[in-house]
Design goal:
Strand 1 (151-156) and strand 2 (159-164) form a beta hairpin. This protein has 15 helices and three strands. It is mostly helical.
């Protein structure tokens, strides 16, 4: 038994090392191509968003693939992180000239606020299961988007000025900013005039940190408890596992990582509105997770990269590109559900479920 356990542990370590190696190799290759001018300007503009969506896919895979709960409001946590990151970054621009340090602080702030929001939402949501949980998370995602639309935020030498404007009767003048003050968020118009300090290196580091957090969490005692809840809730509860506690831990970690992705995403655009983080964004990230494989982190990275870049690669086909994109999605789904293809992929990329089955 101990020999088999050691073999499984070694396989898991090899798989994790392969995932890190692929990400690092991709970063080195892209950096070399970018420095030599081999990448188009449009392609370089996709690097940071791709990193953000990879992190989003990894975080959602923790909820859907590892925890086994369907969440349709994950973009809400991304929006919280995005606007928190923008506020923090703009507020510190005069105090901290270093872009790298501001990115770090903004990402940490986005993680903390998104984690807190995930905890509050998780209290009522995690008592539900299946379709009910999916519908409620969808509702919370839309609520978060509308709440951000009601925010007016500005900064001057006296600090931050906030106004919550649900009726729409207030304007930026009501912030009472000084002459040197700056408006950061203008309600439904979103954040404008943001300094775009995000870069590909920060995105690469964020991916590595996300992988480190998730892979170590899944292999930890807490992660094994979460997997037990996913596989058999009744059996896990009968063994004394606190269902609510472990579900909350996984959900909050997932929300915080989504907030980090949102913070980096927000600092990549000079103008950002909450409509960017609607239901369609949550579904897009869910597609990345499903096509990459539930519980398969490397699959999520590959799926997010390919499916985000694909529409841009098909741009030359003009109005037919989204049709071709949909056809590719259908073909990929048919291929990945083919038993022969599944068997082949399982040999190349061992999944978490296969590893758990070997342990048994």
């Amino acid at each position: 038994m101990s020999k088999a356990k050691g073999l499984n542990l070694k396989k898991g370590t090899v798989r994790n090392a392969a995932t890190y190696s692929i990400v690092i190799a991709a970063y080195v290759i892209i950096t070399i191509l970018s420095s030599t001018g081999s990448l188009k300007r449009s392609t370089q503009g996709l690097l940071v968003p791709v990193c953000c969506y990879i992190v989003m896919a990894l975080s959602l895979n923790l909820t859907v693939g590892v925890l086994g709960e369907l969440s349709l409001g994950h973009a809400g946590f991304m929006s919280i992180g995005a606007f928190t990151g923008v506020i923090v970054s703009m507020s510190l621009s005069a105090v901290i000239p270093s872009a790298g340090l501001r990115i770090f602080i903004a990402i940490v702030a986005g993680m903390i606020i998104a984690a807190f929001a995930g905890f509050l939402i998780g209290i009522p949501v995690l008592k539900l299961r299946g379709d009910y949980l999916a519908i409620v998370t969808l509702a919370f995602g839309e609520i978060i988007k509308e709440l951000i639309n009601c925010l007016l935020v500005g900064i001057d030498e006296n600090g931050l000025h906030f106004i919550f404007n649900p009726t729409g009767s207030k304007t930026v003048e009501d912030l009472a900013l000084s002459e040197t003050g700056k408006v950061i968020i203008k309600g439904a118009q979103g954040a404008t005039g943001t300094q775009t300090i995000a870069n590909f290196t920060a995105g690469f580091i964020l991916i590595l940190v996300t992988l480190f957090i998730i892979l170590n969490f899944v292999d930890s005692r807490t992660g094994r408890a979460v997997l037990a809840i996913r596989d058999n809730r009744i059996a896990a509860e009968s063994c004394g596992i606190n269902i609510t506690k472990y579900k909350m831990i996984a959900f909050v970690i997932s929300a915080s990582i989504a907030g980090a992705a949102g913070a980096l995403y927000g600092m990549n655009y000079s103008n950002l509105t909450s409509t960017k983080f609607d239901f369609n964004t949550s579904i897009l990230v869910l597609v990345f997770v499903v096509l990459g494989g539930l519980g398969n982190m490397l699959g999520s990275i590959i799926a997010a990269t390919v499916l985000y870049v694909l529409p841009e690669a098909l741009r030359e086909f003009s109005s037919y590109r989204m049709l071709m994109y949909a056809i590719v999605l259908i073909l990929v789904m048919l291929a990945t559900n083919n038993p022969k293809v599944k068997n082949l992929l399982s040999k190349v990329i061992p999944t978490r479920k296969k590893k758990e089955g070997a342990r048994k």
